[in-house]
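Notes, p. 3: input format for complexes.
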Amino acid sequence: MDSIIHSTAETAIVCTQSSQVLASRLAEKLTCSLIPVMRRRFPDGEMYVRIEFPPENPPKKIILIGSTSNHDDIIELLLLNDACGKREIILVLPYMGYARQDQLFNPGEGVSARAIARILGAGVSQVITVNIHKEGILSEFSVPARNISLAKEIAEHINAVIAKDAKPLLLAPDGGALGLVQSIAAIYDFDYDYLSKRRISSEEVIIEAKSISVRDRDLVIIDDIISTGGTLATSAEMLIAQGAAKVHAICVHGVFIQGAYTRLKHCGIEYLCSSDTIESAGSGFSAAPAIARAIREIL
Ligand code: R5P
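Output follows (299 residues plus ribose-5-phosphate):
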């Protein structure tokens, strides 16, 4: 059973509009209150927020939670941060957008991960991120920042939903996601491998598992982010052509832009889901238990 971390008057949760389901799950896990926020727009589209702090025993510490999937999310987090006044804030960024431009690739570019970390880290006491695109970004926050992984939640979800009939083969879409896949595989002793590209000609590339045969196997491709789903769709089609029994796909952050969810289902992916770091009907498991564990260690 989850332990009570603090009296509800001491610590409370405030969330952005787009992280309200995850925040309410977190509030249940931590047995602390989720304070309502009143939001409206000025005629020119600018955002207004007011945190409805209880007049009696207002909280001293705030867990401020919000993914930054779009510009409004970023502005809302900044306004909520300001509305918290002098209270101590623990900022939870379940999905940190703008993290993929994490270094200078060409002269003159803005390094968006650094810019966003700088503004969001201002005025908070610490930051928690979830499967951030690259851990190196954490050093751009001006306060202590810690990244947590949903490996346990993903492993449990695969075990409960996909691995009922046969032990699946977990696949990282590339070497970059191999660490995440390895840590998930270790929990239930699943087989794992990663996908590599083999060039056949100047026109043709074959995507295949590096060392293990996919024939007649139930595959689960696991990535931190599915955005357009482009590479994943091509990989799934090729793995099915190579004799895979079933192809499933799971990610932490389901961005699913440009009709990605539909495209991936259409190309033969049997089961597709993400966590609720970006809330959608495709959220099949929650990041709340992992975030709650991290917060209990802090408080
Ligand atoms: C890349 O570094 C990430 O880990 C994902 O593989 C990538 O963001 C997925 O993008 P898309 O879904 O557009 O192929």
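The radius of gyration is 21 Å.
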